[in-house]
Specification:
The structure is a homodimer of 414-residue chains. Chain A has 414 residues and is an alpha/beta fold. In chain A, 44% of the residues lie in helices and 21% in strands. In chain A, helix 10 links the parallel strand 7 and strand 8. The longest helix of chain A is centred in the N-terminal third of the chain and has 17 residues. The two termini of chain A are 47 Å apart. Chains A and B meet through strand 2, helix 10, helix 14, strand 13 and strand 16 of A and strand 2, helix 10, helix 14, strand 13 and strand 16 of B. Strand 16 of chain A pairs parallel with strand 13 of chain B.
Chain lengths: 414, 414
């Protein structure tokens, strides 16, 4: 017996074959058509979203989560605009990364091609549905979108609108699919080797961990950001304060926000109380290790196992270290491999930090809030990859492709 | 209690940290020292190998496998030469793939860096031990080498010599490690997330499948090559014969050898018997589908489930199809995604085949035997990757690295 999911994945595979060779013009037309269809179905989408929001309210879900779930006309317009913006980006498919001739005249081209069928497992933000569908389409991939049950009605309405937009330009609606069902369906996705080419979990650390451990399909990890900033003894301390405040407070709920401050002991006696003054003014809660607590009585204790977690709130931890070596060792022990920062005026320390800290992004004298596909100039991103294979850092359209060697000759043999 | 393997993996991780920032000069000196040490220990290596070979003979192992296991002075010299050759290749580490400025003056460099700790699980060829150790070292990675029990004595002697070579130039011998023990150790490797960054199985389809299904560590699949060649109606038939014979017979035991011939029905009546004449002369056994059998009585029947397997011997299967569409569909059903070939003089068919066949390498009018790191001019390869993420096709030194974004500013905030 073939499950509903397997049928759906096979349909996505079939649709992906046609999409893989679609021209940029066809894909861009589809993106505009999908955007138009979202706008034509605003009423249905908002009504469906209203049902999701009401269910969550009745279930007593926290208001921050309800905010992430809620749509309004301007958020739907934002989803449509996101699709239109994708049409302005270059098509990654067909790019020749490298081309050369062998001595015998055989020519080799290394060419970007779509991955095929991309599965995305994400939490309750219905705008991710349109966003992920658009990025997959532009990069030539069919999408199996596994949203959360709390956004089910919204996601159904959004996907129906997107599929309508695809059909309006003569494309296969199975390019974009909503995967519905219980946890057993997530298990099926994770076992669907050969049907699903890659799984991308987007959400909290526990979701990512469950997919990474359970999946037989290759996984790209995104999003967990336990980001550190080290204030070196040589740092410009005014610059350090500005960057710390920006990285911590500009948008604390995101993965590139600062979670842990590491300070060289030789400057901590002056710098830390000054920093805590500013944190206190801005309502940032401060925890720390025993050395930090000894320097400022306003600092609470970080639990033993607290150093590996993201606050994603207006809270920060402080650790005091004796030197750069200890700072690098501390960051190695606790980093999630997302974005790590040093504030320094010492060239040697800058170079050692950049070389020895193992993370997708290493920043010198700049805010980790710049680690973002939009900020990098990539135009769109599916997430920030924190693992080492295939893609690392902001994942944009090129990272949603694989490559193929096309080898042409006129009869050469070995 | 910490297992022997976990201790070993932690040691490799520590060693990898120093190696990651080693200069090319240091790494090249180490490669020469490892090569010298192999030559200084030829006697010990050959004695150890003799014990492995004797055990396998007593166990009644097939002679082809014993040949793969056996070393002699010239094979050890070949291993040493392989290490010396690696020193002539550019260092992939530090290469800037892309560098740009943001509007606010922040500069971003995307830089190649080592992956960290690479686990390689392979079958009974002791020369892979030196080969893999050298490729990992040159790309800045520590290696956990899991050879097969039948080559245990040989691998111990080779690794001891390599470690001696590392120590002779002041490097940490834990850069190269032999992982010993039963199947439970392979399981430990596959669960060692965070300690091992990637697992690369090298060997038969069942080994690769077991690692892919069982591993929580990211895996790069290599090696399984069920390669097809389609003779289009427009093909130059003399060229087709030459390429088919080369791809099938030049070295039938390797992954880029031809396994299945697909022929357009409109030319099969003349072309197939001619091809079978040549196969018969060369001692190539021929199987096929019912249409092929109907055209030539010398063709045996391919078992129902035989079309997905590699012969790796002087045997070939033949399928007859009505047109390019059916050929592409047939290849999609049975390909292992390694190397697929078309022989054609039709530009449209060439382009469709190259675009629509989903494989690491697609060849037009050339032998699939060219799909090889050495032939491609890469100088060394760890294997041919047949999956779509991170690396696809011949995996050379650059594919043994990941990237890091290094972001430098002078106080920029968002």
């Amino acid at each position: 017996m073939t499950s509903v999911f397997i049928e759906q994945a096979r349909g996505a595979r079939e649709a992906s074959l046609g999409l893989a060779t679609a021209t940029r013009a066809v894909k861009d037309k589809a993106l505009h058509s999908m955007a138009d269809s979202l706008m034509a179905h605003v009423q249905q989408i908002l009504e469906a979203n209203g049902r999701d929001v009401q269910r969550s309210r009745e279930a007593g879900v926290a208001s921050a989560l309800i905010d992430r779930l809620s749509l309004d006309p301007s958020r739907v317009e934002g989803m449509a605009q996101g699709l239109r913006d994708l049409s302005g980006l270059p098509d990654p498919v067909g790019e020749v990364l490298h081309g050369w001739n062998l001595e015998n005249g055989v020519h080799i081209n290394k060419v970007r091609v779509p991955i095929g069928v991309v599965g995305i497992i994400y939490e309750a933000r219905p705008n991710v549905t349109a966003d992920a569908a658009g990025i997959c389409l532009k990069s030539g991939n069919a999408a199996l979108l596994r949203g959360s049950s709390s956004a089910l009605d919204s996601n159904r309405a959004v996907i129906a609108a997107l599929q309508h937009g695809l059909e309006a330009v003569g494309l296969d609606p199975r390019i974009v699919n909503l995967v519905e069902g219980g946890h057993d369906i997530t298990d099926e996705m994770m076992k669907a080797r050969g049907l699903v080419d890659v799984l991308i979990p987007r959400g909290g650390a526990s979701l990512i961990d469950a997919v990474v451990r359970g999946s037989q399909v290759p996984v790209i990890e995104t999003g967990a950001g336990n980001c550190h900033l080290f204030v070196d003894a040589s740092a410009d301390q005014d610059m350090a304060v500005d960057i710390i405040i920006n990285a911590k407070t500009q948008r604390p709920s995101v993965c590139n926000a600062l979670e842990t401050l590491v300070i060289d002991a030789s400057i901590a006696r002056d710098f830390l109380p000054r920093m805590v003054d500013t944190f206190t003014e801005l309502g940032v809660g401060v925890q720390g290790d025993s050395r930090a607590q000894a320097l400022d009585a306003r600092i609470g204790e970080t639990p033993y196992d607290g150093w590996d977690e993201e606050f994603l709130s207006l809270d920060i931890r402080v650790a005091i270290v004796d030197d750069l070596d200890e700072a690098i060792g501390f960051i190695r022990s606790h980093s999630s491999g997302h974005s790590e920062t040093i504030i320094t005026n010492d060239v040697g320390n800058q170079n050692r930090f950049a070389a020895e800290v193992d993370a997708a992004c290493v920043l010198v004298n700049a805010s980790s809030r710049f680690v973002d596909g939009g900020m990098f100039g990539f135009g769109a991103e599916i997430g920030i990859a924190t693992q080492k294979l295939h893609a690392r850092g902001p994942m944009a359209l090129p990272e949603m492709t694989t490559t193929k060697y096309v080898i042409t000759g006129n009869g050469q043999i070995r």
